[in-house]
Structures are given as C-alpha cells and as structure tokens.
Write a structure and sequence with these properties.
The structure is a single chain. This protein is mainly α and about 130 residues long. It has a domain of about 90 residues. It has six helices and no strands. The longest helix is centred in the middle third of the chain and has 23 residues. The C terminus is likely disordered.
C-alpha cells in the first residue's frame, strides 16, 4: 500500500496493540529479549482476531515508537515539564511505569529470576558480530 512503514495506525489499532501488550505474558517475553520477532508474530496474530491486518514488523515498529515516545514524555515530566504529552500515555504508564524502577534496582547480571531461554537469548546476542 504505502512505503515500508505502511499506513498510519488508527486509534483503535493502537488501543488493540496496547491491550495485547498489556498482557503480562507478552510483557515478560518482551522484557527479556532483543530477538523478538516470534513475540511480535504472536501479537500480529492476535491483532488479526480483532480484524487488524498488521505484520510483525509493523507491530514491532509501533511498539518501539510508542515506548520511545513514552520514555521521552516520562523523562520530561520527571524533570518538571508538563509541556510534553502523548495520546496513550496513561495506558503505557500502566504497562511501563512499574518496570522503570524495578529495572533500575536490579543488577544486570541477576539472571536468577529469568527463565532459561532469556539467558540463552542474551548470550546469543552478545556473541554476534
């Protein structure tokens, strides 16, 4: 239809993506891995059930963009600025807000709570290149 990015996401499409993303199971999978094509294939398949036709790349790009935008709004707010805002901030804050503090307090090499496949994915990533 359009270029690589495809057509713009509608409000309902983004809502559906966020609803799927808010699934604890999806969050846990996304949190521990960089190689996440398989997860976004699941997300795309679930969007299809809502009648939303997006491929895994579009889902991943939208996820990354939303996450990036959320982080920039959040850090602006943390520094006292109220000028920055975004449409789905509250929904994303419900998903991402509780991660930020947890992540900061955990040390990087604390593998004890992660399922073994996350540890494998991490070392696989580290050995590339």
């Amino acid at each position: 239809v359009a270029n690589e990015g495809g057509k713009h996401w509608t409000v309902n499409e983004v809502r559906a993506l966020i609803r799927i993303w808010s699934d604890k199971n999806i969050q846990q999978q996304l949190e521990g891995t960089v190689r996440n094509k398989r997860i976004f294939e699941q997300v795309a398949a679930r969007l299809q059930k809502f009648g939303i036709d997006r491929d895994w790349k579009q889902c991943r790009t939208k996820y990354k963009n939303l996450k990036h935008e959320y982080k920039s709004v959040k850090s602006a707010q943390d520094s006292g600025s109220t000028s920055k805002s975004m449409k789905f901030f509250n929904e994303l804050d419900a998903i991402l807000g509780h991660f930020t503090m947890e992540q900061a307090s955990k040390s990087d090499n604390d593998e004890s709570e992660k399922p073994p496949e996350w540890t494998e994915a991490k070392s696989e990533k580290d050995s590339v290149g």
